[in-house]
Amino acid sequence: MIGRITQSSLGLAIAIAGLLLTNVAAARAATFQAAPCPYPNSQGATCGYLITPLWHAHAHGPTIKVAVAIYPPAGGLLHADPVFFLGGGPGFPTLGSSDGIAALKIGLTGRTVVELDQRGLAHSRPRLGCPDLTALQFVQPDIALAGSVEEAVLNYAPGPPLERALKAAEKCRARLTSEGVDVTAFNSEESADDIEDLRKALGYDRIDLFGTSYGTRLALVMLRLHPGHIRAAILDGVFPPQKGARSTGEKTVEAYRALFDYCAGLPACAAVHPHLEQQVIDVAKALDAAPVTITVVPQYVRGPPSVQARVTGDTFLAVLAYALAYEDGTTLPDVVGRVAAGDFSQFSHLYGEQFDTTSTYGMHYSVECGEDEDFSPPPVLRRIAPGLPAYLRGPYLRGQVGDWRMCEAWNVPLIKRFREPVHSDVPALLLSGQFDWATPPSWATLAASTLSHATTEVIPLAGHQTYFRSACSRRIADTWLDDPKATLPHCNDAPSPGR
């Protein structure tokens, strides 16, 4: 007889097993390591790195470093729950960036602000940068426009410009692979797991989320995967997982329609531009028939002091769309009128603000191609295009087919479950700008339809990322953050333009 397992020996065995499991769990836990802040003007911040698994399903495998900055509360009344700020892109940095600095206003509510460069970005390691892609912005910029400052999407035309971009993407991916970087591990779900690891490593029981642009999509993934310790979430410029590349045409129509309706409803604008939509169409047609070369001064970037840009109808429409997101949309009817009269001075300035040399293109394509672009192959795009206004069909197909081909070159697998709606009962405030081209108000409405405690607010005359540009948006967000059931202020002030 081998022997009996007594009650006491069974208890001892269970206790030992529990200790072993505890030790395994401890070995798998992500850690926060303090380090000097890796960017200037970081006064007051505590910085460091989250050491977390490359793949969270393989906790004992390779690890990565996610750069983190923690800012103490700036207000008088202190709150226990910190705000985790999730920046835009995917691909745009947070730490030390204009967005990261603007987000520190959240600290005036008396809350600690935790910022991070998402995996693959800027000060995190590895960094999935692609310098050859970045440089293409300054090569024939009329057909290689920098694109959305936040999304870091190059807007490619068929022919040599696209072929150059494809080769640059393939070269970048090959280099990263040779350095041991698994580009398929950089996506929103793994990033959400990073944020949950960071919450645990910093010892917070409850947190608030503040996502802007792509950061709203990441916040929604957090609500899907890790809702248990989230008190509330603010989504500013809502990017629901159901929307993506194929929706670019419809969001462009929505943003332009908001502009045209605004002008038609304002007597002073309507008197000067009685048929603004037709004026836009006529200018685009004229530029397609006879493109104009202008001098553009790239803003906010380290690049050439100026570039010569050949403006076609497509370029004209693209710059207007980006300006609706990032500038004061109320000035655009005047811009259209000046271009119609041959004056490109204002237009040139708007063009110059689209260049971006800070975004991390490799991280951008790893996220977008696994969660978005590859769900929209050219046959799908060509079926959608006829439903758009005729003057927008060409730009839509050019840009989206180009991005789809870039995803072929980047070659990451699809996350098929990603496009499902997010269901959550966590209180959520969804902010949108009336003129926002990047994430129009209808996208917030869609996301809110599956959030049982959602509040939506559209900020008049605003574009993208309203909290950064509208004092009223900040009053709404701060009031709601204190009490999601409070009566929110009304907006009657004009937002400020620019980033």
Structural descriptors:
18 helices; nine-stranded mixed beta sheet; 499 residues; disordered N terminus; two-stranded antiparallel sheet; globular; alpha/beta
Percent of residues in helices? 40-55%
Distance between the termini: 79 Å
The side-by-side strand order for the widest beta sheet comes to 1-2-3-5-4-8-9-12-13
Largest sheet: 9 strands, mixed
Q: What proportion of the residues form beta strands (DSSP E)?
A: 5-15%
Tally the helices.
18
Task: Give the SSE layout.
Elements: H1 7-28, E1 31-34, E2 46-53, E3 63-71, E4 83-86, H2 98-102, E5 113-116, H3 131-135, E6 144-145, E7 155-156, H4 160-178, H5 188-202, E8 207-212, H6 214-225, E9 230-236, H7 248-265, H8 267-272, H9 276-289, E10 292-296, E11 307-311, H10 313-326, H11 332-340, H12 345-352, H13 361-371, H14 378-384, H15 390-410, E12 428-433, H16 441-448, E13 454-459, H17 466-469, H18 471-482
Parallel strand pairs: 4-5, 4-8, 8-9, 9-12, 12-13
Antiparallel strand pairs: 1-2, 2-3, 3-5, 6-7, 10-11
Helix pairs in contact: 4-15, 5-6, 7-15, 9-10, 9-11, 13-15
Q: What is the compact description of this entry?
A:
This protein is an alpha/beta fold and 499 residues long.
Give structural notes.
- With 499 residues, this protein is an alpha/beta fold.
- It has 18 helices and 13 strands.
- The chain has helices spanning 7-28, 98-102, 131-135, 160-178, 188-202, 214-225, 248-265, 267-272, 276-289, 313-326, 332-340, 345-352, 361-371, 378-384, 390-410, 441-448, 466-469, 471-482; strands at residues 31-34, 46-53, 63-71, 83-86, 113-116, 144-145, 155-156, 207-212, 230-236, 292-296, 307-311, 428-433, 454-459.
- The strands form 3 sheets. It has a 9-stranded mixed sheet, with helices on both faces. The protein has a two-stranded antiparallel ribbon with strand order 6-7. Strands 10-11 form a two-stranded antiparallel sheet.
- Strand 4 (83-86), helix 2 (98-102) and strand 5 form a beta-alpha-beta unit.
- The radius of gyration is 24 Å and the shape is globular.
- Residues 1-27 and 143-155 have low confidence and may be disordered.
